[in-house]
Design brief:
Largest sheet: none
Oligomer: single chain
Shape: elongated
C-alpha cells in the first residue's frame, strides 16, 4: 500500500524523494553510527583484557619500587647484592615489557566504530620511542657505573641504575598514557 503523500508526486519527484529521503521509507539508522553490539562487545572485552594486563604489571612494579629489594643480600657483600639486583632487574624488565606491550596494544586497537577483526601490527612512534629509551637507559647506566670500574660496586651501581630508571620510566609512561585506561 502506498502512502497518500507519495500519490501526489509525479515520477521525477518520486525518484528524487526516494533518493534524498530514505529514512522516511526505511528503518531509521542509529544516531551514533556505532557497529552492532556484538562487534563492540568483542572490542570492549579485548580492550579490557589489555588494560588489565597493563594495570597488573604497573601495580606489581609500583609495589616493588617501594620495597627494599636485596636488603637480605647485604650480608653476602657487594657480589651478593649485585646478583640479587640483577635478578630483580629481570623481574622488573618483564613487568616493564608487559606494561609497554599493553600500551602499544591499546594504541594499535582501532576505535570501536572502525574495529577490524585483529590489531594492527604496524610499527608506531611509541615503539621507536621505547627502543630509544632502552638505548638511553643502557648507555646512561653503563656510563654512570664507570665511576666504580673494575669492582663489584660497578655491577651494583649498574643494576641499581637500571632498576631506578625503569621504575621512573614506568611512572612517566603511566602519566603520559593515563587516558588509555579510561
Amino acid at each position: 500500500m502506498c502512502s497518500p503523500l507519495l500519490l501526489n508526486f509525479g515520477p521525477m519527484k518520486l525518484l528524487l524523494f526516494l533518493l534524498f529521503a530514505p529514512p522516511l521509507l526505511t528503518q531509521a539508522a542509529p544516531h551514533n553510527n556505532q557497529k552492532p553490539r556484538s562487534d563492540f562487545g568483542s572490542f570492549d572485552s579485548e580492550q579490557t583484557a589489555i588494560r588489565q594486563r597493563g594495570t597488573e604489571a604497573l601495580k606489581r612494579e609500583g609495589l616493588r619500587s617501594q620495597a627494599n629489594l636485596c636488603t637480605n643480600s647485604e650480608q653476602g657483600g657487594q657480589a651478593a647484592i649485585a646478583a640479587c639486583l640483577v635478578n630483580e632487574d629481570k623481574v622488573t624488565e618483564q613487568n616493564y615489557l608487559a606494561y609497554i606491550r599493553s600500551i602499544g596494544a591499546l594504541l594499535r586497537l582501532p576505535d570501536s566504530e572502525n574495529a577490524p577483526k585483529k590489531l594492527s601490527t604496524k610499527r608506531l612512534p611509541f615503539d621507536a620511542a621505547e627502543d630509544a629509551w632502552r638505548t638511553y637507559r643502557e648507555q646512561s647506566c653503563a656510563s654512570m657505573a664507570t665511576q666504580w670500574q673494575g669492582g663489584d660496586q660497578e655491577s651494583v651501581a649498574y643494576a641499581n641504575c637500571k632498576l631506578t630508571l625503569t621504575w621512573n620510566h614506568i611512572k612517566e609512561l603511566a602519566d603520559l598514557y593515563s587516558d588509555l585506561w579510561h
